[in-house]
């Protein structure tokens, strides 16, 4: 089965057919999904989704672009809900200097990224990391917070293959989604060539990042076979093997999955 490690089904773009899509995943070979919270309301919605659908799991946390949503009170809320049996990780958390150029906002992002790493360590959960145009600082915050003591995934990986190998050395996985199918995906293809298949996780980031031939449209986990096919081709393995290994990777990282 395909293990989808990064989706946003709480997004309003699924309001019309969320139930139809989520109920159709199993029959299409998508056996498990992690819904990643970003905003405060996304965190509440994630709890509702994991309670409603047996194959939907969740990650709780505040995304760097929603950093105004977090404060001590909400931090405590995440901490208590992280104990839920279907909450597998803290995420998505991290740094985004592409959307936020303001130095003060970036500082705030670093602070709460670090605090949420601490929370993950305390909760015994891995982290799902969003990092855009902030490679060095991401690495630094992870190191400062002794993130070697925990594991996680660098989601929607966009940096160099050398950096990917650094993250892997620290015990992290590399999240690969629709971008791998794009015509200008050279850098990500090089990364997938360079890292072991045993360190790759499948993800969509839906509703964003739809693979070819749906680029620019609303994405969903149903398009993951296009990503699996491309990864299998790059690694020179069968589609079935790419699916099985990435599923085993997800189960090794997200140990709360039954
Ligand atoms: Ni995301």
Structure description:
This protein is α/β, with parallel strands linked by helices and 258 residues long. The protein has one domain: Metal-dependent hydrolases (TIM Barrel, Alpha-Beta Barrel). 41% of the residues lie in helices and 18% in strands. It contains 9 helices and 8 strands. The chain has helices at 18-24, 40-52, 72-81, 103-123, 135-144, 161-169, 186-194, 224-235, 239-253, and strands at 2-7, 30-36, 56-60, 87-96, 127-132, 152-155, 172-176, 200-202. It has an 8-stranded parallel sheet with strand order 1-2-3-4-5-6-7-8. Helix 4 crosses helix 5 (135-144), helix 6 runs parallel beside helix 7 and helix 8 crosses helix 9. The chain starts with a strand and ends in a 5-residue tail after the last helix. The structure holds nickel (II) ion (NI). Nickel (II) ion binds at residues 6, 8, 36, 92, 205. Nickel (II) ion binds next to loops.
List the helices and strands and how they pair.
Blueprint: E1 2-7, H1 18-24, E2 30-36, H2 40-52, E3 56-60, H3 72-81, E4 87-96, H4 103-123, E5 127-132, H5 135-144, E6 152-155, H6 161-169, E7 172-176, H7 186-194, E8 200-202, H8 224-235, H9 239-253
Parallel strand pairs: 1-2, 2-3, 3-4, 4-5, 5-6, 6-7, 7-8
Helix pairs in contact: 4-5, 6-7, 8-9
The structure holds nickel (II) ion.
């Amino acid at each position: 089965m395909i293990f989808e490690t990064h989706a946003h089904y709480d997004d309003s773009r699924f309001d019309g057919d969320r139930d139809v899509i989520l109920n159709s995943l199993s029959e299409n070979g998508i056996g498990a999904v992690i819904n990643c919270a970003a905003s405060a309301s996304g965190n509440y919605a994630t709890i509702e989704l994991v309670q409603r659908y047996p194959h939907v799991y969740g990650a709780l946390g505040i995304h760097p672009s929603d950093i105004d949503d977090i404060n001590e009170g909400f931090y405590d809320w995440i901490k208590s809900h992280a104990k839920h049996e279907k909450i597998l990780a803290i995420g998505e958390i991290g740094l985004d200097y592409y959307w936020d150029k303001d130095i003060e906002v970036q500082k705030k992002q670093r602070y709460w990224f670090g605090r949420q790493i601490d929370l993950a360590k305390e909760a015994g959960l891995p982290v799902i990391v969003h990092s855009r145009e902030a490679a060095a600082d991401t690495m630094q915050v992870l190191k400062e917070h002794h993130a070697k003591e925990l594991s996680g995934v660098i989601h929607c990986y966009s940096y160099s293959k050398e950096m990917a190998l650094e993250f892997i050395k620290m015990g992290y996985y590399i999240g690969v989604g629709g971008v791998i199918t794009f015509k200008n995906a050279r850098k990500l293809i090089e990364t997938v060539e360079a890292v072991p298949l045993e360190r790759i996780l499948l993800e969509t980031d839906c509703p964003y990042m739809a693979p070819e031939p749906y680029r620019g449209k609303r994405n969903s986990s149903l398009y993951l076979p296009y990503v699996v096919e491309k990864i299998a081709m790059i690694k020179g393995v069968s589609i079935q093997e790419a699916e099985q290994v990435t599923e085993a990777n997800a189960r090794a990282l997200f140990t709360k999955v039954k």
